[in-house]
Design a protein that fits this description.
The chain is of the alpha+beta class and about 200 residues long. The protein has 2 domains: about 30 residues; about 140 residues, no CATH class. It has 4 helices and 11 strands, in the order αββββαβαββββαββ. A 7-stranded mixed beta sheet has the order 1-2-7-8-11-10-5. A 4-stranded antiparallel beta sheet has the order 4-3-6-9, covered by helices on one side. The radius of gyration is 18 Å and the shape is globular. The N terminus is likely disordered.
């Protein structure tokens, strides 16, 4: 009986540890995040000049909902995602970035089942407009978006914070999908630079 109680206590403490950040804001990863090159997962930080010096934490879905609840007048012109209006990502030959279709692995279970699953997250990113997405810890990964089992990650490889415009992320995610879509329409992969990379993979959400 004592052995059973010990096991229950162990699993309970493991579950709590997986949901409570440590003093650095780092979280233990779920099983489906264990391929992220052994980097800790930290909350994405989003800032927007329309909200002063405030820092919002969480995925774009959560932050967008919070911003809209506080200042709905800023989001009256929100638009559905449209491939025709997507900013064109510069060609890989003109940038340092390269696409890695083996990220996070070549396991089919890491692949998003269809590209359309990612469009909701892309829409939130585009509608954030002036907002800046940042990874506060280094090196570390932040989950940018997760909807319909499509997970997008921004990973910082530097020894200091990395930031980029949130609405520039969809172009790179689109480049990953274009390069890495398999024969049945599943998408996954990463676009990698010296300072950071963006990853696309299946995620439980």
């Amino acid at each position: 009986m004592k052995a059973v109680l010990s096991l229950v206590a162990f699993f309970a403490s493991t579950i709590l540890a997986a949901t409570i950040p440590d003093k650095n804001g780092w979280y233990l990863r779920r099983d489906d995040e264990m391929h992220l090159e052994d980097l800790p997962i930290v909350d994405l930080q989003i800032t927007d000049p329309r909200f002063g010096d405030r820092v919002f934490n969480g995925t774009v879905e959560a932050v967008y909902a919070q911003m809209k609840a506080e200042k709905p007048e800023l989001f009256v012109d929100e638009k559905p995602f449209d491939m025709e209006t997507l900013p064109r990502s510069p060609s890989l030959s003109k940038r340092q970035g390269t696409v890695n279709c083996g990220w996070p692995s070549n396991n089919v279970n890491d692949r998003v089942s269809q590209w359309n699953n990612c469009l909701e997250g892309m829409t939130y990113l585009m509608n954030l407009g002036q907002a800046i997405c940042g990874v506060p810890a280094s090196p570390a990964c932040s989950r940018v978006s997760c909807s319909h089992n499509c997970g997008m990650f921004l990973c910082n490889k530097q020894n200091f914070e990395y930031k980029m415009h949130c609405d520039s992320i969809p172009a790179d995610i689109n480049a990953i999908a274009t390069e890495c879509m398999d024969s049945v329409g599943r998408v996954w992969g990463a676009r990698d630079w010296a300072t950071h990379y963006l990853g696309l993979r299946k995620q439980s959400c």
